[in-house]
Design brief:
The complex is a heterodimer of chains A (363) and B (307). Helix content of chain A is 56%, strand content 13%. The relative contact order of chain A is 0.15. With 307 residues, chain B is an alpha/beta fold. Chain B is built from 13 helices and 9 strands. In chain B, strands 1, 2, 3, 4, 5, 6, 7, 8 and 9 form a 9-stranded mixed beta sheet that branches. In chain B, α2 packs across α13 and α8 packs parallel to α10. The termini of chain B are close together. Classes of the chains: A alpha/beta (363), B alpha/beta (307). Chains A and B meet through α7, α10, α12, α13 and α15 of A and α5, α6, α8, α9 and α10 of B.
Chain lengths: 363, 307
């Protein structure tokens, strides 16, 4: 049986790593991209918010929204004779705002229209790290990298949202926002919208103005007016991004930790992928405690007679059993050959040696 | 410091930390500790979803308060509920539902970043003014978002120049920046990434949001174990099987290595962040129930006494 993670990094074009915060998503994404590069592919890892030392390790300390090539000596620890001659590794740190700016510049009918939007205060709020925007821009970046054809494999680390599935819905949500009746009314020229708007909507707008001030509402209206000429372009783009998510060359890898909350999120996510008709190509369980044999904790305690080493073993057996029980609902849902376990190490993973250790348990 | 004195330093304590560090558990343990000192406690769950009630064997949390234990109540404080609540109490009851269902709220929330956070914090302020309890514990959003949560009021003061929301933001800034009314308690695990994130959050909370910091809670600490005088052979001689002896030695080695790593991270934290640390033990049991929370409350009380 072939290792599912090998075929993942050797054959797919896009790997999306999803999971809740703090489960080692960024590390996993880096490990997968490095492995692909070592196997001769041109790989790029897109991270959202890498832990500082990992970023330093990858030479990502300079925040850049464009892929930066990483020196092979950094990521390829094999001796020079065995080194891949075709593989390359690049990395980039997503900058939501500049991605959005670029999108606006691309779709605006002229430079003046683009400037009107970029200067608008409402736009500046939207384009910052506001709910949904970051997710959408991650997908947008993915689309941009994919169409550039500069890479064989793009590994993307999804934003650390509370609900890891937000980014899946991002294109759809953007379209829904554009379809919102309120927005459509706001997008009409200033003079006519009050005439056309129903009495109820006028009351709403008045209330909103009263609570947050008139200028906030005016900013929003100005934004949607400026946006009007670009709407079609955005709409088409969102549909293409959606198509990319559904493409069979795109693989989803769930990353989890053997923790109740992380597993619950992963279950939710796998359910969501299923209802979208998307398969889970792999499940990576990070930081699982070693099993330390198979003795029953209670029996150990009964036999320990105060022996500290045996009592400590009983504690670790408890953890091992608990973690595996926590994971059960998730692992039994998936074919066992797509599940990879990365043990909790007795050192922190933040350098290339650490990444290599993680890789050794997956490949 | 005496427990009662510690819990009376400010009526509002916001518990913040990276996802997965046990923020909710620490909140619950602190609440129990405070009730031991004779204080009434209200826990506010900002993100709606919480494992809090499972530990107390209660039903799920709602916007309306429920009692988890004597003198200990809890409720959710989700932004949308706070928004409807705000509109209703400002004479806009009739249109509050409509605002929510038409999507207008989303537009407003987008137009005014931090609007939802302000409504939540504004609600906390009114609970403080009542006062709803002797101690109000806020289970804050995960770390990254916690900063924008605390910064929301200042940002809003820049964006909105008139109207009741501005008044609300002014009140919230007053609450947050008054150390006799509000403090932030940061929770972390003694590991590389959570410690880094905690240090960053701490500086942002104090310097940018201007909120006072209480002690840092370091969760999941492994206990110091006596040096290992039980080699594999002596365990076998004491009557344990070869497999168990080998596993015990391995588990012992693992515990020592993990603990050494934790100690290193705690020392680094102490060096980079001049705040007292309160250590909570790693629990080995399957789930956190009332008994485990009491154990953690014991550790908190001991840690507070040592401050």
């Amino acid at each position: 049986m072939t290792n599912p993670f090998v075929s993942l990094v050797e054959t797919r074009e896009i790997v999306v790593c999803c999971g809740t915060g703090g489960v080692g998503k960024t590390t996993t994404a880096a490990v997968l991209a490095i492995e692909a590069a070592r196997r001769g592919r041109r790989a790029v890892v897109v991270t959202i918010d890498p832990a500082k030392r990992l970023a330093d390790t990858l030479g990502l300390s300079a925040l850049s929204n464009e892929p930066a090539l990483i020196d092979q000596q950094i990521w390829d620890v094999s001796n020079s004779a065995q080194r891949s001659t075709t593989g390359s590794l690049s990395a980039l740190m997503l900058d939501t705002k500049s991605t959005f700016d670029k999108l606006v510049l691309e779709h605006a009918p002229d430079a003046e229209a683009a400037e009107r939007i970029l200067d608008n205060r409402f736009y500046r709020n939207v384009s910052g790290a506001l709910g949904g925007t970051q997710e959408y821009m991650a997908m947008e970046k993915l689309y941009e990298l994919h169409t550039s054809r500069g890479f064989d494999l793009i590994v993307i680390d999804t934003p650390p949202s509370r609900h890891a599935l937000d980014f899946l819905e991002a294109p759809e949500r953007l379209l829904r926002m554009l379809d919102n009746r309120m927005f459509r009314l706001l997008m009409m020229p200033t003079k006519t919208y009050m005439k056309l708007a129903s009495v109820a909507l006028q009351a709403l707008l008045r209330t909103v103005s009263r609570v947050v001030g008139r200028e906030v509402v005016e900013d929003a209206i100005a934004f949607f007016q400026a946006f009007e000429g670009m709407e079609q372009g955005f709409r088409e783009r969102a549909a293409k991004v959606q198509a990319l998510i559904d493409d069979p060359a795109t693989a989803f890898v769930l990353v989890t930790a053997p923790r109740r909350d992380a597993v619950d999120e992963a279950m939710f996510f796998s359910h969501r992928l299923e209802t979208n008709g998307l398969a889970i190509a792999g499940l990576i369980v990070n930081r699982i405690h070693p099993t330390f044999g198979d003795a029953a904790p209670d029996a150990l305690r009964a036999a320990a007679q105060g022996n500290a080493a045996i009592l400590n073993l009983a504690d670790y057996r408890d953890i091992a059993i608990r973690e595996r029980a926590t994971l059960e609902g998730l692992t039994t849902k998936l074919p066992s050959d797509v599940v990879g376990y990365v043990p909790l190490l007795d050192c922190d993973v933040h350098d290339i040696a650490g990444l290599a250790l993680v890789a050794s348990s997956l490949f | 410091m005496e427990l009662r004195q510690f819990c009376s330093q400010s009526r509002v304590v916001i518990v913040a930390g990276k996802g997965g560090v046990g923020k909710t558990t620490v909140t619950a343990a602190l609440a129990l500790a405070a009730t031991r000192a004779g204080l009434s406690v209200l826990i506010c769950e900002v993100e709606g979803k919480s494992g809090l009630t499972a530990a107390f064997g209660s039903a799920t949390l709602e916007y309306d308060e429920i009692e988890l234990a004597p003198h200990l109540r809890a409720r959710t404080l989700a932004p949308n509920d706070a928004m409807v609540d705000y509109l209703e109490s400002h004479g806009m009851k009739r249109i509050s539902k409509r605002l929510a269902s038409s999507g207008a709220l989303d537009v407003v929330a987008t137009a005014v970043p931090g609007m939802k956070d302000i409504l939540v914090l504004g609600k906390i302020k009114s609970l403080e003014q009542l006062p709803a309890a002797d101690l109000i514990l806020v289970d804050a959003p995960a770390a990254g978002h916690a900063i924008s949560f605390l910064m929301s009021a200042r940002g809003l003061l820049d964006a909105v120049r008139v109207g009741p929301i501005r008044k609300q933001a002014t009140d919230v800034v007053e609450l947050l920046t008054d150390p006799t009314r509000c403090q932030v308690m940061l929770v972390t695990l003694p590991e590389e990434t959570p410690v880094n994130e905690l240090i960053e959050t701490a500086f942002a909370v104090e310097d940018r949001a201007g909120v006072a910091l209480g002690p840092v809670v370091v969760n999941g600490c492994l206990p110091l174990q006596e040096p290992n005088d039980w080699g594999e052979r002596s365990l076998v001689e004491a009557g344990f099987s070869n497999e168990i002896a080998a596993a015990a030695v391995e588990a012992r080695r693992f515990q020592h290595a993990r603990r050494a790593m934790q100690q290193h991270q705690r020392a680094r934290l102490a060096q980079e962040l001049p705040l007292p640390q309160i250590e909570l033990p790693q629990l080995f049991t399957a789930a956190i129930h009332r008994a485990e929370l009491e154990t953690l409350a014991d550790a908190l009380v001991a840690g507070i006494a040592a401050l």
